[in-house]
Design goal:
alpha/beta; Rossmann fold
Length: 147
């Protein structure tokens, strides 16, 4: 399994929250794990926000930041190129995605095309997951069927 982690999923590897066990299990089962180059900044912003909201202690936030920096070389990083941004702009319009969510979806799509193999997008963002359905990506966690 080739995983693409958006920021909502990657953060769960560094801050214990609902879904952390699943993301850890999928990460350990993956052949390759990729994320966008922008995820480092986005994850650090999420850690800082969690500290400001008193969801985690400053020490926990700093440790999450340090651990991510140490492990950052383990991830395949998809670059944010003109092609990525152009595709993200299309996806933002078509799927009603926020900017970075569109970057993540475009990155996962382009990585799947480059690999020529299935990619599973791991996201805890429902709107991003819905957008990924139309992109031919597998999604984790599995989304409930629309009814």
């Amino acid at each position: 399994m080739n995983l693409y982690l958006d920021t909502s999923a990657l953060v769960k590897l560094y801050i214990r929250e609902q879904g952390s066990d699943n993301v850890s299990r999928w990460f350990n089962q993956a052949g390759f794990t990729a994320t966008s180059l922008v995820t480092l900044a986005e994850a650090n912003a999420a850690f800082a926000r969690a500290v400001r909201m008193n969801y985690i202690s400053p020490q926990t936030g700093e440790e999450a930041m340090r651990l991510l920096r140490r492990q950052w070389p383990l991830y395949l990083k998809t670059p944010v190129t003109e092609k990525t941004v152009t595709r993200a702009a299309e996806l933002a319009w078509m799927a009603g995605l926020r900017g970075y969510d569109a970057i993540h979806l475009a990155s996962a799509e382009l990585w799947q095309t480059a690999l020529g193999l299935p990619v599973t997008l791991v996201t805890y963002d429902n709107q991003l997951a819905a957008g990924a359905v139309g992109s031919g990506l597998d999604i984790l966690p599995e989304q409930p069927a629309a009814g």
